[in-house]
Amino acid sequence: KSWNPSAKARAAGAPVEVDFSKLQPGQQMTVLWQKKPVWILRRTQETLATLASNRDHLADPDSAQSKQPDYIKGDARSSNPEYLVAVGICTHLGCSPQHLKDGAFEEVVEGVPDGFFCPCHGSKFDMAGRVFQNVPAPLNLVVPPYQFVDDNNIIIGSEAEAV
Question: Is 99 an annotated catalytic residue?
C-alpha cells in the first residue's frame, strides 16, 4: 500500500479539462497540467498559411525526433489545425519561450512574423512549436496528449482516439 500514489499525487497527474471558447484568432491561454504550462493558441488563417513555408529553416519539420502523440501529423502539429496545444517549456534548459506576434518575431527570424522566442539562450520556434535550425534547443516543443471534447472544450492529458 505504501507504493500507491497519494490522492494529491494522482490529482497532480490527472487530465485537465479546459474551456477555450473565449479564445479569438491570434490569442493564447496557458493552463497547468502536471505542473507544466500548456499553451492553447488559436491560430489565424494567415498563420496556418505560413507553416509550410518555414520547413527549410527548421531542424525537425516533420517532428520525427520530437515528443508528440502518434495521431498528431502535418505542419500544424495538431488534430485541429486551428489550435496549437504545446507544453510551454523550451527543450534546451527548461525556460519558458515568449510568444512574439504581430511582426515582432521578424526581429529574430527574418520573414517570419509570429513565433516563440526563448530569452534564456535564444532558441526559436515557429507557430507549430517546431524548432529552427542552429539554436540551442535540440527538439520541437512537446505536444501533450489531448482530445477535443467539443467545439469549446479540450482535455489535456487524455489520449484521443486515432483518426
Answer: no
